[in-house]
Amino acid sequence: MSRTATTGGLIAVAALALTACSPVTTLEPYAASDGVRVVWDEDDTSIRGENVLLLTAEAGAEARMVGGLTNLTSEATEITAAFSDGTLIDTFPLEAGETLLLDGEATRDVLIEASPVAPGENASVVFTTPTLGAVEVSVPVLDATLAEYEDYVP
Question: Would you indicate the residue range of the signal peptide (predicted)?
Answer without folding.
Answer: 1-26
